[in-house]
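Run log, item B.
One chain of 285 residues. Sequence copied directly from the ordering sheet:
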Amino acid sequence: MFESSYKNTAVNALKQEIEEYNQAVKSAAGEAESLQECREKSVQLLKEVQEYVSGLAGSPREYGIKIGSVNTRVRQFERMQLKLEEDSRKAEKNGGKMIGTGIAVGSLVASVGPSAAMAVAMTFGTASTGTAIATLSGAAATNAALAWLGGGAVAAGAGGIAAGEAVLAMMAPIGWAVAGTALVGGTIYVSLKNRKTAEHAEKSIKEIQLQTSRIRGTEKRISDLRDVTIQLNTETERTLKSLKRGFIQNYALFSTKRKAKLMKLVNLAETLSVKIGEVIDPNKP
């Protein structure tokens, strides 16, 4: 009776940790989606800056060079976005792959929705091989998706499950979170002895807590990057609007103050164009 109660307490605690992990994943993906929206606004704003500066007569050559670099970064951002959209469509058309337990891989991405999945991919870049994660399948897709949100170490095989339990070892504790709670309380757990089940659950709780903490740290970094992007957007837009007032299209007619403002605009655009291409490594603090 005591061991049965011990098992039930541990398994229920594990269920709660899995739920918190899943919520952390969704929250981090939501922050990535918010960042992506800010970056898409940045792209449109940078195009307006490029159009304005290119339309000025007699502006310094160095400004043209800087704006050219800005335009290159904008095109790189748009190409990456287009490629990921194409990859996602292909993956959706081909259908999800299945692994040993019959749970569809990629369910982590599916659980947060396609727009959030796209944002996550843009925020964290590609898999370590350089391949877009949406094109991967099987364990590779699962591992890459987990690495997006800081679970790379566990996904790579550092899960806290003892050797010999093949299915559990394959899924790892974070794998359970990706799949939902399908394994918790299922036939695998029922077949294990009470104490062994409780020990597995407790060990997995520690793993999941660690990864949940890492995900929340990653979410904070995403939020900080979004806030910086918003600030840059605001200042760039304000400076551009100020320069457009008066409709002076010849640099030679600019006052000293207006020339300084143009220099500020070009520098802001350069900084913002670099910022939209910044990616976050979820495995670094």
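Observations after the first pass:
- The chain has ten helices and no strands.
- The two ends are 44 Å apart (CA to CA).
Flagged for discussion on Thursday.
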